[in-house]
Amino acid sequence: MQKSLQTFQFKENETIASVGASSGVWEIWFASQVDNLTFYIQDIDEQNCNQEEIDYGVQYYEKLLKKKINGKFIPIIGTQKKTNLPQNTFDKVLIINSLHEFSSPSLILRDILNILKKDGILFIEEVIGMSVGEIHEGCGKRLFTKEELSKLLTQIGFEVIETFSKNNNNNVFVFKCSLGNMIN
Question: pTM for this one?
Answer without folding.
Answer: 0.92
